[in-house]
Amino acid sequence: MTPQEILQGHLAKTIHLTDDEFNYFFSHFKPQSYKKGQTIINVDDRVNCEYFVLKGCLKTYYMNDDQKMFILQFAMPTWWASDYNALYNDVKATVSLDCITDADVLCLSGEDREKLCKEIYALEYFFRWRSNRGFVVAQKRLLSFMNNDARHRYEELMSMYPQLYNIVPKQLIAAYLGVSRETLSRLYQH
User: Fold this and answer.
1) Which of 13, 26, 32, 119 is the most exposed, fewest CB within 10 Å of its CB?
2) Residues 6 or more apart from 67 whose CB is under 8 A from it?
3) Cα separation of 155 and 145, whole Å?
4) Which domains does the chain have, with CATH numbers?
5) How far is Cα of residue 106 from the mean position of the Cα atoms in its chain?
6) Given this model, what pLDDT does residue 158 score?
7) Other Cβ atoms within 10 Å of 76 Cβ, number
């Protein structure tokens, strides 16, 4: 599939755009390719884009003062990723975004996104729907951290995204679950 077909299929699950509207929308994206391990956003960067994943897998993460990594998000094909606090509030990045695998993405600037949302109501609806959905997922994850043990969180993650186990290194799955690599190994054995 072409990048246009992937993005058009993604949008079509939520909204309908005419061919002219979609072509205009797509014209605002910049395709970019990254290699495994390459950083897209570093802490303290200025962020002016969000990234739609066409191929590969990204991770958004935070490193605390003790250099412990906390994974906020894995982003697989047709998922979006950025430091949204930095993008929306014009502040420096507080999280990093990098590539777990080689990745192809489409970059949409925050400025273009806002312009497109004003010009095409269906896009405003799509981005609002997507933001709301992201909020719900984040809330569920936070509640799971408050109420469930590591085994339950692991089983929940694997039931929702079984493909992660074959794409993402185990130490990153552990960082997403908030457990050590050793704890994850014990969970996986049972």
Assistant:
1) 13
2) none
3) 13
4) 3-112 (2.60.120.10)
5) 12
6) 85
7) 19
d(C-alpha 108, C-alpha 53), whole Å: 11
| Distance (Å, whole) CA 154 – CA 132 | 24
What is the token pair recorded at 53? Answer: 């994943």
State residue 162 phi and psi, 5-degree precision: -60, -25
* pLDDT one digit per residue (tens) for the chain, 190 residues: 999 999 999 999 999 999 999 999 999 999 999 999 999 999 999 999 999 999 999 999 999 999 989 999 999 999 999 999 999 999 999 999 999 999 999 999 999 999 999 999 999 999 999 999 988 988 988 898 889 888 888 888 888 888 888 899 888 998 988 888 888 787 766 4
Q: Which of 42, 43, 38 is nearest to 58 (CA)?
A: 38
Q: Would you say how long the chain is, in residues?
A: 190
Residues 17, 18, 19: CA angle, nearest 5 degrees: 115
Take residue 92 and report the two structure tokens written for it: 């420096």
Closest CA to 81 of 90, 72, 91, 68: 72
pLDDT score of 190: 47
Q: Which of 146, 149, 155 minimizes the C-alpha distance to 173?
A: 155
